[in-house]
Amino acid sequence: MINRIRNYNFAFKPTLLTSMKSYTREKFMKDLMAGIIVGIVALPLAIAFGIASGVSPEKGLITAIIGGVIVSLLGGSTVQIGGPTGAFIIIVYGIVQNYGVEGLAIATFLAGVLLLLMGFFKLGSVIKFIPYPIIVGFTSGIALTIFSTQIKDLLGLQIENVPANFISKWGAYVTNINSISFTSLIVGLASIVIIVYTPRLTNKIPGSLIAIVLMTLLVYLYRRFTGDTSIETIGDRFTIEVSLPQPTGLSITFTTITELISPAFTIAVLGAIESLLSAAVADGVTGKRHDSNTELIAQGAANIVVPLFGGIPVTGAIARTMTNIKNGGQTPVAGIIHAVVLLLILLFLGPLTIHIPMACLAGVLIIVAYNMSEWRTFRALLKNPKSDVAVLLTTFLLTVFFDLTVAIELGLLLAMFLFMRRVIETSSVSVLRDTVDLSHESDVHDKDEVLILPERVEVYEIDGPFFFGIASKFDESMRQMRDKPKVRIIRMRKVPFMDSTGLHNLQSFFRMSKKEGIQIVLSGVNDNVHNVLDKSGFSDKIGHENIYSHISFAVERAEELVQSPSKSADTGAPQT
Question: pTM of the prediction?
Answer without folding.
Answer: 0.74
